[in-house]
Design goal:
Elements: E1 9-14, H1 18-33, E2 37-38, E3 47-52, H2 57-76, E4 81-86, H3 87-92, H4 94-99, E5 105-107, H5 115-125, E6 129-131, E7 152-156, E8 158-159, H6 170-174, E9 178-179, H7 182-194, E10 199-203, H8 219-227, E11 235-239, H9 248-256, E12 263-265, H10 273-279, H11 285-298, E13 303-310, H12 317-330, E14 334-339, H13 357-380, E15 386-391, H14 399-402, E16 404-408, E17 414-418, E18 429-433, E19 436-437, E20 442-444, E21 450-452, H15 455-465
Parallel strand pairs: 1-2, 1-3, 3-4, 4-5, 5-6, 7-10, 10-11, 12-13, 13-14, 17-20
Antiparallel strand pairs: 8-9, 15-16, 15-18, 16-17, 18-21, 19-20
Helix pairs in contact: 8-9, 12-13
């Protein structure tokens, strides 16, 4: 079904990490710049773009399952096109067209800017276009963007990764790290703030390695401090750092810059020194816990989350108990936990000592139970605190039934609160007192103490006033915290492709 005024409609479906979500915003911007309109919820779009992830096995299954479902849709929808991009496209290349010959375009991680031209060429030549570049042609942030949020934005400060973790294929697909110039990053943030954004998240495959391409080991902490000086920017976050590159100057910048949030996602992967060595992670348990201690000394209220892999090849019961020890010591606010599965093209896939599935499941269940207990205990410490909440859109699945609204605390905890008498909009800020804690959210059941209407709320309201189709959902592909309904067999993805 074509969009308004006969324009072609599109839908972007995203799997994977925040970097993929941000790339999808670029893809949407490119398509709208080329004359497409975002599809509504009803009818079939003229174009479906899958932005894929290659980190987890279930991402492959999801993609090919969805492509299979679209085959009959395309056969009855004249002129419909299907494109597949992202990490899985970079990895599988011609395999996608072989398995799903009804796909029109396959493009990689380095050439998302070519999508409109490839679609046009596929339509003219009546055959699939497969274009995979081996190195970045244009930094994605120079491309048009259609951002999903009016009040919060991703800002990529680097692309690629220089690490060689044995479980991860991302460096082979995204390439070596390339850093943006600090001035370009700050200019983008300033432009976003001018548009009404009050929260930004700095993105990188290994975000705190920023500067290695610029020859400045303290470039990341300097960038945090410089961003902190931008008037109107109220919240700064970043993801995902690597313990190897997490230095004292970054901790100081977080503690001393008021609008850098006291929230940290620090991927552990394993607590065993032996397993960390096999993973080719360049830190050990003592180093990791030392970082956690320093962060808590500088910011006692810091909320720290992590990624953990269970069942890496060769993991023994003793190795797993070391992971449990770190979880007890670090007291993470939450953890994204993954059961190891082989990913073709990674060294770990060829390692001896693959752990039996039943053993992995039993360890996984024990880890989940421990982390649930810790998460609940840590959240209970928030009861009685007065917090300023950034009102969010779509965070509370039960908000309509409970007459509540939802948003994020400064430390990124999810808070559901009683709807105030005064109208509030996503992007506005409310002050509430926490009255109840669950393992994965907080409740503020009393009256709202204060409402602060913001430019971000104005921007959201302005966007709603424009006649536009309801945005299609973005499927992050990240598991919920805690025990999932079905067993996931997954390599890590964490905050940003599993660093």
């Amino acid at each position: 079904m074509s969009g308004e005024s006969g324009l072609k409609s599109y839908k972007v479906v995203t799997y994977g990490c925040q970097m993929n979500v941000h790339d999808s915003e670029r893809l949407s911007g490119l398509l709208e710049d080329a004359g497409y309109v975002k599809a509504g919820q009803d009818g079939d779009p003229d174009l479906v773009v899958f932005n894929t992830c290659a980190v987890r096995e279930n991402a492959d299954n999801k993609l090919y399952g969805n492509l299979g479902q679209l085959a009959p849709v395309k056969s009855r929808h004249q002129g419909m096109q299907i494109a597949v991009g992202g990490c899985l496209a970079q990895k599988d290349r011609d395999t996608i067209v072989r398995k799903a010959p009804w796909v029109d375009v396959v493009f990689g991680t380095h050439n998302i800017g070519h999508l409109p031209a490839l679609l046009e060429r596929a339509a003219v030549e009546k055959k699939a276009q497969v274009e995979i570049l081996e190195s970045l042609e244009t930094f994605p942030s120079t491309l048009p963007t259609r951002r999903e949020s009016a009040y919060a934005a991703w800002v990529a400060i680097s692309v690629g990764c220089n690490n060689t973790c044995t479980f991860c294929i991302v460096p082979a697909l995204r390439g070596k790290e390339e850093d943006r110039r600090p001035g370009d990053v700050l200019a983008e943030i300033e432009a976003l703030v001018d548009e009404g954004v009050i929260e930004v998240t700095l993105l990188g495959q290994n975000v705190n390695a920023y500067g290695s391409d610029l020859g400045d080991r303290e470039a990341f902490s300097k960038l945090l401090r410089a961003a902190g000086q931008i008037e109107g920017l109220e919240r700064i976050r970043f993801t995902s750092p690597h313990p190897r590159d997490f230095t004292d100057d970054v901790i100081a910048a977080m503690a001393e810059t008021p609008n850098v949030m006291h929230q940290l996602h620090m991927p552990l992967q394993s607590g065993s020194d032996r397993v960390l060595k096999a993973m080719r992670r360049s830190y050990r348990q003592e180093r990791f816990l030392g970082i956690i201690r320093k962060v808590r000394e500088a910011m006692p209220d810091a909320a720290i989350s992590t990624d953990i892999i269970v069942g890496f090849p060769g993991e023994t019961e003793e190795d797993f108990e070391e992971t449990m020890h770190v979880v007890r010591e670090a007291r993470f606010t939450n953890a994204f936990t993954f059961q190891y599965s082989k990913r073709p093209g990674t060294p770990a896939a060829e390692m001896d000592g693959q752990v039996p599935k039943a053993v992995v499941q039993a360890r996984y269940d024990r880890l989940i139970a421990l982390q649930e207990e810790i998460s609940w205990e840590e959240n209970k410490k928030q009861v009685g605190r007065t917090l300023e909440i950034l009102v969010a859109e779509g965070e509370g699945k039960k908000d309509d039934r409970t007459d509540r609204l939802s948003g994020r605390a400064p430390d990124n905890r999810l808070v559901h609160f009683t709807k105030p008498e005064e109208p509030v909009r996503p992007g506005d800020l409310v002050t509430v007192e926490i009255t109840y804690a669950a393992p994965h959210h907080l409740l503020a059941e009393g009256p709202t103490l204060a409402v602060r209407r913001t430019r971000a709320g104005d921007a959201w309201e302005k966007r709603q006033a424009k006649p536009a189709a309801k945005p299609a959902g973005v499927m992050l592909g990240l598991p919920g915290i805690g025990a999932p309904a079905a067993l996931p067999l997954a390599a890590p993805a964490g905050g940003c492709c599993g660093d």
